[in-house]
Amino acid sequence: MKLIHPRWKIALAAIFAICLLCHRLPAQRISVPVDTIKQRLSFYKGNDTKRETALKQLFLESGCSPANLTEQTVPSRKQPNLICLLPGATPATIIVGAHFDHADEGDGVIDNWSGASLLPSLFQILAAAPRQHTFLFIGFTGEENGLLGSDFYVKQLSPEQLTTYKQ
Predict the structure, then answer these.
(1) What is the mean pLDDT of residues 152-157?
(2) 81, 140, 142, 167: which is deepest, by most CB within 10 A?
(3) Is 143 a catalytic residue?
(4) How far apart are CA 90 and CA 133, in angstroms?
(5) Per-residue pLDDT for 7 more than 70?
(6) Domains, the chain, ordered by start
């Protein structure tokens, strides 16, 4: 039996805490099969383009509609930021992000495919019940090259958008 890496356990615990604290969902409603989570984690193999394609497919399979899944082109990056919108009852927005690119050394599973592959699971959990907040799940590109994807994303926000984001 393989053990789950401690950082992965922390990420799962964080997902559980977000669901319970932000939305007061009953614990029995929070369910993504462990095998599904493990399968999503296994798609780390390959270059950043393959990871971007895998993450996009995982978002779609988890229920993010094509109309709510957008690609934000980031200058000097081949891969875009992937943004999955989960509308809530209010425009107050919570951003949950992770990067899918990796450094040349190693596989980059812990930093940060483990986080990116959990984004669709969190989407799936939160989509199962009504929400007050709107959520944006963002797979950032270019983080290993100087936080390019997240920096670009923030710089594109309008003053109106900034007022709806929760801090």
Answers:
(1) 93
(2) 140
(3) yes
(4) 6
(5) no
(6) 6-164 (3.40.630.10)
